[in-house]
Amino acid sequence: MATWSNINLQNSASPLMEQIIFFHDHTLIILIMITILIGYLMINLFLNNYINRFLLENQMIELIWTIIPAITLIFIALPSLRLLYLLDELNNPLITLKSIGHQWYWSYEYSDFKNIEFDSYMIQYSKSTPNNFRLLDVDNRIILPMNNQIRIMVTATDVIHSWTMPSLGVKIDANPGRLNQTNLFINRPGMFFGQCSEICGANHSFMPILIESISIKNFISWINNFS
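The line above is the sequence of Cytochrome c oxidase subunit 2; the predicted structure tokens follow.
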């Protein structure tokens, strides 16, 4: 989860989020190189006294400053396209989780199992429950097994919501009348926090998402004990 004074991306908990972080760092390095080069050229331009009254055109320099940005864009576009296709890749999911957005809570259905569905509301923080995470904890958590491919199907009943889980690299819109699909692969146990990231009304800030990642053995026990 995000903490105070953390300006970086959250720690990755899935292979897709690792790839997103690598792409972010790759693009940032290119932007820093461009910024340094342009800054150096502009400072040089302001500080030197060179002048050429007869310089009207120079086709070679125009060719260079057209080709170099094009090559730079290729270095950004190719990894971006690769990542875009990786994010859409879905290979033999173990289970399917259906997430339905409401004003202002989420409801979930484990469609591979009979009658496993529940609503998830934010827990009100108080001094009597200091162990709850303020504005992030819910009464019914999503329980998912780690190290398994999971399909997430997202829709909404009223307005547009957005099911977002930063540490897992997932952000998918929940549109009324439309079923969107994405995938998860959680590579470590723990609790992962997310929120609706589409402004959906007065209580938009108060419909958090909480995933608890556990081993497959404990997940099967949870399924058997669910009532």
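Note on the example: The chain has two domains: 13-48+55-86, 93-223. The two ends are 29 Å apart (CA to CA).
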